[in-house]
Amino acid sequence: MSVDATPNAGAPTIPHPARRLPVLGDILGVNVRTPLQNSVSIGRELGPIFERNVLGNRFVFVSGADMVADLADESRFAKHLAPGVKALRGIGGDGLFTAYNSEPNWAKAHNLLAPAFSQTAMRSYHRTMLDVAGELVAYWDRHGTGSPIDVSADMTKLTLETIGRTGFSYSFDSFEREEQHPFVKAMIGTLSHSQRTTFIKSTAVGRFLARRSDARDDIRKAYMADVVDEVIRTRRENPGGAHEDLLELMLRAAKENDPNRIDELNIRHQVVTFLVAGHETTSGALSFALYYLSQNPEVLAKAQAEVDAVWGSEEPPFEKIAKLRYVRRVLDESLRLWPTAPAYARAARQDTTLIGKYPMKKGDWMLVLIPSLHRDPLWGNNPEAFDPDRFLPANVKARPAHTYKPFGTGERACIGRQFAIHEAVLVLGTILQKYTVEPDPDYRLKVVERLTLMPEGFTLSVRRR
To answer: Is residue 256 part of a domain?
Structure first.
């Protein structure tokens, strides 16, 4: 049940796509640009567990709520770096997201940085989040309301600026640029390269054919490393000021010989991890939420009425972000349908059996398809429908645990979950407070994959209220 595993004798047969070819395997219908959506489509036909054999490499996908719950057992399963994530070690190294469980730096960094995501720390970030949201509003106003807005591009500007300032007291001047920051262009290129070459580079021939593409990717990675080094160098050259951010925690620990201190190379890995993961997934979540708001007038009206009632026309204090409970449900439902980090892998710590049925040897792993999990029959008869009230407290309580996993699972789940939620609700509330949004009536949702998910070609027209 890993890339190299063969089926266990006597185990239940795991279905696979029809028309499997000798040597090549299940390559018919494979789309290297949309492998996640391709796998979700196959799962609709084959059920909550299936396998794909591509060029001799076996992948097992699961989405059944009972299986996902079993895989969440930390005593028997742990995080596994799936091939696409493993490919990112070229930029993330042993950072929080790309570290192997056996590497000590991930636990050190987690312990060191956890205070940066406490409620006290979140309060300290609130002012910066408001300022960046205000810059988005000014940017939209400068460009004239009523004109089409590239939602995903602008949400990316916003979230990159937010993590840059809150995490590292560094501005990318995102809203002073008409084009995307070169860091974003390099990041998208690297993520897309990793996604598209996962299957290709699983063979010696594929690795040979990918050499030119790899060389271009090396240039992108080098540029990203240069940007991160500039962020760190700027802090070292200007140490004054009341910096209480992620970078300060790491630099201070090194100076004070903290037992959780990390070395210079790992500091770079953590900075690039937070710059990428800290903005890419949240920008996608905001984009999907705005898409569903624009497509559901009743939901939009209800969300806007809540903002008017709770915030009025005033700038919201920290406490009033969490009071936008309906807006939060809109965000949760958007992440149910399109979780922007759409999969994670779990490996067996020892020989075991999944749900008492599928034997797994130590090291065997499976890939959880989160969009399929979020469409499990437990979600009702029409899981494709957008319905924020699925997240009413009574409905959440009625569902079994582990049916909703947009932030991963276990000890290696997303450390920045509360940061992302606070930022996203604040930004959605600000947009609803300031603008009326109007969709392009001809737009049909198209989702682009680059390990993360994002609406492609999605525009809105906004008018000041």
So the answer is: yes
User: Active-site residues: which are they?
Assistant: 281, 407, 414
- What is the domain range of residue 70? 35-464
* Predicted model pTM: 0.94
Q: Where are the beta strands (DSSP E) in 55-185?
A: 57-62, 77-80, 148-150
For the chain, the average pLDDT equals 92
Q: Which residues contact 345 (CB under 8 A, 6 or more apart)?
A: 79, 80, 81, 82, 85, 365, 366, 367, 368
Please indicate whether residue 199 or residue 272 has the higher confidence score (pLDDT): 272
Q: Is 103 within the bounds of a domain?
A: yes
What average pLDDT does this structure show over 389-399? 97
pLDDT in tens, 129-155: 999 999 999 999 998 776 899 999 999
Q: Where are the beta strands (DSSP E) in 253-379?
A: 343-348, 352-354, 358-360, 365-369
Q: What strands, in cross-sheet order, belong to the sheet with 459-464?
A: 148-150, 459-464, 435-439
235-228-421 Cα angle (round to 5): 90
Name the phi and psi angles at 298, rounded to 5: -65, -40
**Residue 30: inside a domain:** no
Q: Is the dihedral of CA 328, 333, 335, 338 positive or negative?
A: negative
Residues 304 and 307: their CA atoms lie apart, in Å, by 5
**Confidence grade of residue 241 (pLDDT, cut at 50, 70, 90):** low
pLDDT tier, 4 (very low <50, low <70, confident <90, very high otherwise): very low
- What phi, psi does 20 have (nearest 5°)? -70, 135
The secondary structure of 253-280 as a DSSP string is HHHTT-TT---HHHHHHHHHHHHHHHHH
List the CATH number of the domain containing 314.
Answer: 1.10.630.10
Q: Rounded to an integer, what distance in angstroms lies between the CA atom of residue 107 and that of residue 101? A: 9
Q: Is residue 64 part of a domain?
A: yes
The total domain count for the chain is 1
